[in-house]
């Protein structure tokens, strides 16, 4: 009988220990879950309240603009001549996009120090100017001749319907003289500019990609007319 009673007492203590262990484990798991949940909520709130700054993007969804700043950057002299150029950038901060802040170059202001005139590169500031190239390019020694043309890659339309203007949209290619005059769009619906060169005859040669092909275009810089636009390779070969 004593052995049986001792066994019963030991079993009772064991079950009591197991119940206590389980209850304490549940308690600590609950505390740990609460801590993890608090950390996750903190990071979500921090991410939503922080300002994300992106370049060459413009939101056109009609969302309320909390803050808008238009800035003129520093003027730089073009090839040591009489013409100076400065970028016009637009910075937009939105109220409901988790503090999103977007900056983009929209235009260029030119100043001629000889006749004291000022003028804009183009009419309107809606399009994004993604990049500028100039020709001739520096040679291997770093020396550069007087530039005769500037080539601009810009985004004018939301072609992928994401309510934003960005590098993900199809682009337009424009040219101007080195002093910023005679700005003209020469190509539309371009996916990528693949290269450009100034030929011996003074014509501009550009390689570019559309959604369906890689092409080469030759432009007379005097008249700004396209002389030829040929397909180098189809991107639809083998597609049905």
Plain-language structure description:
It is a single chain. This protein has 240 residues and is an alpha+beta fold. Helices cover 20% and strands 44% of the residues. The strands form four sheets. Strands 1, 3, 4, 5, 6 and 7 form a six-stranded mixed beta sheet that branches. It has a four-stranded antiparallel beta sheet with strand order 8-9-11-12, with no helix packed on it. β13 and β14 (204-209) form a beta hairpin. The model is unreliable at 41-53 (pLDDT under 50).
Task: Put the structure in a nutshell.
With about 240 residues, the chain is of the alpha+beta class. About 20% of the residues lie in helices and about 45% in strands.
What distinguishing features does this structure have?
240 residues; alpha+beta; six-stranded mixed sheet; four-stranded antiparallel sheet; 1 helix; 20% helix
